[in-house]
Amino acid sequence: MGSTVEASKKTLRIGVDVGGTNTDGVVLDPLRASEPDKGILAWHKAPTTTNPSLGINDAITTMFQTAGIRPDQIASVTIGTTHFVNAVVERDAARLSRVAVLRLCGPFSKHAPPCIDWPADMRELVLGHYALLKGGLEVDGSLISDIDEAEIRAQCAVIREKGIRSVVVNGVFSPIDTVEHQEERAAAIVRAEIPGCDVVCSKEVANLGFLERENAAILNASILAFARKTIRSFQEPIKRLGLDCPVFITQNDGTILSGDMAARLPIRTFSSGPTNSMRGAAFLVHGEQSEVNEAIMVVDVGGTTTDVGLLLANGFPRQQAAYSDLAGVRMNFSCPDVKSIGLGGGSIVRNGETLTVGPDSVGYKITEKSLVFGGDVLTTTDMTVLAGNADIGNKDLVKGAVDAEGIAKYKAVVKHKIEKIIDTMKTSPEDLPVLLVGGGAVIAPDELVGATHVLKPKFASIANAIGAAVARVSAVVDTVKSTESKTTQQILEEICQDAIERAVANGASRPTTKVVEMDILPLPYIANKSRFTVRAAGDLDYSRTDFATLHFEDSSEAEVQMDEYEKTTHRTEKKAEPQPKEDVDIDSYRPTVRDRVWYINETDLDWITIGCYILGTGGGGSPYAYSLRLREMLRRGDVVRVVNPDDLADDAAVATAGHAGSPTVGIEKLGGDEMMEAQVELAKVSNVKPTHIISIEIGGGNGLQSMIVGASSNMDLPAMDCDWMGRAYPTKWQTTPVVFNERSPVWAPIAMTDGNGNVVIMPTATSDLQVERITRAALSAMGSSVGCAEQPVSGAECKRWAVEHTISQSWRIGRAVVKARKSNCVDHVAETILEECGGPEAGQVLWKGKIVGVHRTLRNGHVYGECVIEGADVVDDDAVDKRQPSGASARQPQFQGRIKIPFKNENIAAIKISQSIVDGKAVETEGEVLGLVPDLISVIDAQNGEAIGTPEYRYGLLVIVLGITASERWTSERGIEIGGPKGFNMDHLTYKPLGKFVKPVSVIDEFNVST
Predict the structure, then answer these.
(1) In angstroms, rounded to a whole number, what is the distance separating the alpha carbons of residues 38 and 360?
(2) What does the DSSP 8-state code read for residue 968?
């Protein structure tokens, strides 16, 4: 289908989308994008073939013939595919290889083994073997231990015996490993021991965040063999047709990737299909400007999956939160915020006791398997024809397959599935436009709850291919630089310019090229060096014709054989479906509290975990890994008890549990047995046997430690519903027992262990400040992460000193966040949290905007730095518009200008800043102080309402800054001196409370049932 084109120089772009069901192609002249047909000269849609080469060949050949196009007019071919992500979503054993994971971790991470947080069926399908081996680095680059070559070879023998051909090597702190090269050395051993196997080094896939990086590397490894052959099959027809132009693959952010890079890191293409769809949709709505007037929900219905994403007013997809999720697997690299469900034109319909649609699909075999094409499998396409909503195939073949009641049920199921996924993607309850694209869009209804209107533009069925044709060009600079002779900012500016120049050299148009992502990771104690990662992207420069043809490794096979990846319907039917987590009715849920003892379950744990990180004010370490550990303990039958400090006997003995160290270490070096080891070592020098246990701080991962250490399989002690901070602080002397100063020292005797065989015990000390100084000095030498155990305090002291009901407060904050997500009110989550913390008088929403700068350094085990946030609306543009008064002028963002948040592990303040140019240099001036310690300053992800810790701050994240008034335990003169600005050497600032402290309501008091 198309129109004749005159001979001209190379200006035409081919976009091809190889989906699970259809292969779409388009030939586009970007210079004619303003014409009614958007410069689309030809297009083609045909079923995807087992060997994608045939479908691509047919699409391009047909388009050339229908529009009179010659090969020498084509400037580039860009291919997008959902092949790889479909394999994961469908859990297709034929396309997913089993993976072995070799962790270089020493004694750490044993309580969070590989794939611990995966859906059970995915873990069973992909994880074939794992081993925890010697190796790994500390945060300062020193060794946890060196790798053991014999140990690695022994594991290779096991992997070889199991027939596994894909291996992931994941080392603790491998992204900063510029000296030891542990992952690379281990990978070389694996390749030598298992010739021809695929080895993925985790540091190539993602950055800091041990579990999330490992998850991404495992998925990448699982798809490698399939990806390599698939990409070769993409390249074959281009050569065969005599096209002398580069072949690109589109990646997650809508930019192009060379074929060899895509074959090595196929995970970078996982979200490219929906991204192309949204970029194509923007192009169809507004041509080459690619900008829309308001946010639009794009629903891309393919043959196998339906992908839903939000197209922002700037014409690009909304990005995911700090962590991304694919098929239930959590990862830590930036992706478009897209949700996928198993619904498409080829989805299998089963009309039993309950009518079900998907998630399995006949995929590209729809023209063989579907009833309307003479097959024997009932699909959504058949049902759409039967309902009279489409004229596809032979409608007589589907007559009587389902009765009228079944058709009504089918329509209701499909409508509900699409409405539910749209609802999930919204961050506010207001309706917004929905744009339906994709070849399977015919199965979607014309009206949807939650949509102001439903759009189906011309060429919508090939939006993916159009998006591929207009894909942007990017360049990444990932380098380690010394900061001795130049400032970090100077180096960053140079690298940003380098990235822009590289993007332009790759074919980007200079006026449109901008830096879209940047990250600075200090390599502490390694000669003042930092790792800089900068990505720049711009639109393809359509005027250029000098693209060098990319050369790819030639396949040794005359023709790529893809028959081994043939899908069969019976295999799909037998696959175990993921078991969804039980959907809790938040309003009616009651925790289990009997006789004033709260028995923690998984729902409680989920909510407490969310709340702990928000109360962590950026520090305390991520509670995620600890939450996984505690969840597994609960599933094994552990009993975890929480009691109210009001019920505590005066002569009780309350032990303290907590980690000390850097939050950056917490997301990378996962805990071993250091917490319990510390308690054992303390018992050797203490004559007090504990009866209860309390967390040193509620903020971050430490908020869960009293429940982990106190669980029935560990010390079997009830955890106190209170802590020594009511938040997170970076030092041990910034605790309420030190504020009360009734005796000194409180924190001696103390035992510290690093989990790697090193123990420090202080039987006595002259003061708590000395305890902090001495242990802090040891901490740096112990990897900036240790487990601590302190001499138990009496029950009477605990009741006087502790910040009360903070586990209850975490539970309530977590419940508020989950409730806001379920009711699509994430844009008001900060206000909802404040309600749980005592109402509007208990705090303030300090700022909303986008992170535009992050600077970090590490000194004496603390991460120092600052985060710069530019004021911006963090809700959907259309939702904002609807809340405006009638006749109002264009709304300005509520928060304008910039603020900075200095931090020392935890956030210290939120300060307005302004910049001016003096003698050619930018000079920063501090303005109004919006919030200041000891009040809590938390940065919350505007996309999901959860906390973002200081290690996770990154350029581009949309955030909400929340201020919560500190406990009255901190607002005495001595409390402010210790926990206020003076405690952080910011004496020039004066503390002014954000509001009035309101004591958290005890869960035990509210929900207790006497037996």
Answers:
(1) 35
(2) G
One-letter amino acid at 194 equals: I
Residue found by looking up tokens 């917004």 in the block: 432
CB 939, CB 867: distance < 8 Å:
yes
Integer Rg of the chain from CA:
29
Tokens standing for 874?
């963090």
- Whole-number Å distance between alpha carbons of 748 and 744: 9
- Tell me the three-class secondary structure of 318-364, residue by residue: CECCCCEEECCEEECCCCECEEEECCCCCEEEEECCCEEEEEEECHH
Count each helix (H run) and each strand (E run) in the chain, helices first. Answer: 27, 40
Report the C-alpha gap between 168 and 189 in whole angstroms. Answer: 13
Query: Of 425, 419, 482, 118, which is closest to residue 295 (Cα–Cα)?
Result: 425
Q: What is the DSSP string of 238-302?
A: HHHTT--S-EEEE-TTSBEEEHHHHHH-GGGGTTHHHHHHHHHHHHHHHGGG---SS-EEEEEE-
pLDDT one-digit tens code per residue, 44-89? 988 777 777 888 888 899 999 999 998 888 888 999 887 787 778 7
d(CA 661, CA 953): 18
Residue position matching structure tokens 């689309």: 40
Residue-averaged pLDDT of the chain: 85
Tell me how far apart the alpha carbons of residues 571 and 260 are, in angstroms, rounded to a whole number: 31
CA 318 to CA 463: how far, in whole Å? 18
Rounded Cα distance, 19 and 463, in Å: 12
Q: How many residues does the chain have?
A: 1011
Cβ count near 988 (within 10 Å): 7
* 942: confidence class by pLDDT, cuts 50, 70, 90: confident
Within 10 A of 181 (CB to CB), how many other CB atoms are there?
Answer: 16
Helix, strand, coil percentages (3-state) for the chain, rounded to 5, are 35, 25, 40
- Given a contact cutoff of 8 angstroms between Cβ atoms, the answer to whether 962 and 846 are in contact is yes
Contact call for residues 726 and 805 (beta carbons, < 8 A): no
Beta bridge partners of 533: 478, 519
Peptide bond into 580 cis (omega under 30): no
Would you give the DSSP letter of residue 202?
Answer: G
Q: Sign (positive/negative) of CA torsion 420, 421, 422, 425?
A: positive
Are 749 and 762 in contact by the 8 Å Cβ rule? The answer is yes
- Model pTM? 0.77
What residue has token string 């398997």? 369
Alpha-carbon distance of 241 to 72, in angstroms, equals 11
Helix axes 52-67, 210-240, angle to 10 degrees: 50
Helix, strand or coil for residue 137?
A: strand
8 A C-beta contact, residue 942 and residue 874:
yes
CA-CA distance, 617 to 940, in Å (whole number)? 9
Q: What is the pLDDT of residue 6?
A: 44
Pair of tokens at residue 79: 């291919």
Determine contact, residues 206/332, Cβ cutoff 8 Å.
Answer: yes
Whose structure tokens read 């790819």?
552
Residue 240, number of CB atoms within 10 A of its CB: 13
Q: How far is it between the farthest Cα atoms of the chain?
A: 94
The pLDDT of residue 556? 34
CA distance 638 to 643: 17
The 3 state secondary structure assigned to 392-460 is CCCHHHHCCCCCHHHHHHHHHHHHHHHHHHHHHHCCCCCCEEEEEECCCHHHCCCCCCCEEEEECCCCH
How far are the Cα atoms of 698, 841, 847 from residue 844, in angstroms, in the given order? 21, 8, 9
Using alpha carbons, select from 515, 486, 481 the residue that is nearest to residue 498: 515
Q: Are 849 and 871 in contact (CB under 8 A)?
A: yes
